[in-house]
Design a protein that fits this description.
This protein has 314 residues and is α+β, with helices and mostly antiparallel strands. 33% of the residues lie in helices and 22% in strands. It has helices at residues 24-40, 52-66, 70-73, 106-116, 122-150, 156-161, 229-234, 287-296, 306-312; strands spanning 11-13, 42-46, 95-101, 163-172, 181-186, 192-197, 203-206, 212-214, 222-227, 243-247, 254-263, 266-267, 285-286. Bound molecules: 2-oxoglutaric acid and fe (ii) ion. 2-oxoglutaric acid binds at residues 168, 170, 183, 188, 195, 197, 203, 244, 246, 256, 258. It comes from Erythroxylum novogranatense.
């Protein structure tokens, strides 16, 4: 009898109090992070934060933000792809997204807030900045665990120092037309993306054998990590970027927040990840160069993880 693999997004519990570097719990969790990412390019993380109250506050911000008039939202302009306002095309957009680049810097959150609310909105600014800091900490923990599992701890400082963050605030509704695709299949052009959302399902992950797995957070402290094309190139293809899409087919609105990380400087796989079994797959490249290449590609290829190969594959 043929047995079929039942795919499930791997879950890693980061909420335990005894998850301290040096402990056996830490080491086995580091390996679970690496194994999950190598197999699926994505993980569900169950954390001890945010509190239920903070989770609701963050989602409340999104509701408040997207209620603003279209002409105000369109002031969120950024020349980099998928960094500014998206969704203006239709009068009833299925998907809207807005971005705060360098969101761990409070001044950037303040600039965005003033653009949206010229009379000020301290609650928005404080909450969105605190959220960005929380997820940046989570990403650092994850990078530390991944590096440790590969024996690459010495690269941690330089990796973190060259990381910047883009926070994207996202809204999805069911389409009134035939198609209800909120965000068609794609891989992210980030190093890594960390997503958090309300209770409405829509995110789907494609496995390496082409099966789509729907994701629904198991609690308000759940996050999904998806590895982007830059994470794949950095890992010399040990980790494949995660192909995913969003389809909302209920009346309820889906709100999500994505934190996308980018690397400055020259990107290349650590030499420890290159050996006879894993010959080098990419030439050194710049993250911005990949984004420019993305802009120059036609719409059909935009979602494709092969783009990074076309850009800097050996
Ligand atoms: O809404 C989500 O959970 C995912 C959004 C997404 O894939 C993206 O912004 O790249
Ligand atoms: Fe994405």
């Amino acid at each position: 009898m043929e047995s079929e693999t039942v795919h499930k997004i791997p879950v890693v519990d980061l909420s335990g109090e005894n998850l301290k570097p040096g402990t056996s719990c830490w080491r086995s969790t580091c390996n679970d992070v690496r194994k999950g990412l190598e197999e699926y390019g994505c993980l569900e993380l169950v954390c001890s934060k945010p509190s239920l109250d903070f989770h609701h506050q963050v989602l409340g911000l999104l509701e408040e933000l997207f209620k603003l008039p279209q002409e105000i939202k369109m002031k969120n302009v950024n020349p980099k792809p998928a960094h500014g306002y998206m969704g203006k095309i239709s009068t009833f957009p299925i998907h809207e997204g807005m971005g705060i680049e360098y969101a761990t810097n409070k001044e950037e959150c303040q600039k965005f807030t003033t653009l949206m609310w010229p009379d000020g909105n301290d609650h928005f600014c404080e909450t969105v900045h605190s959220y960005a800091m929380l997820v940046a900490e989570l990403q650092k923990l994850l990078v530390m665990m991944l590096l440790e599992s590969y024996g690459l701890e010495k690269h941690y400082e330089s990796h973190i120092n060259s990381t910047t963050y883009l926070l994207r605030l996202l809204k999805y509704r069911r389409s009134q037309a035939d198609t209800n695709l909120g965000f068609k299949g794609h891989t992210d052009k980030s190093f890594m993306s960390i997503l958090h959302q309300n209770h409405v399902k829509g995110l789907e992950i494609r496995t390496q054998d082409g099966e789509w797995i729907p994701y629904l957070p198991s609690s308000h402290t759940s996050f999904v990590v998806v590895v982007g094309d830059v994470g794949m190139a950095w890992s010399n293809d040990r980790i494949k970027s995660c192909y995913h899409r969003v389809i909302v087919n209920t009346e309820e609105v889906r709100y999500a927040v994505g934190m996308f990380s980018f690397l400055t400087g020259e990107i290349m796989a650590p030499e420890e990840l290159i050996d006879d079994e894993h010959p080098v797959q990419y030439k050194p490249f710049q993250h911005q160069g990949l984004l420019d290449f993305y802009v120059s590609c036609n719409a059909q290829n935009k979602g494709d993880s092969n783009m990074v190969k076309a850009y800097c594959g050996v």
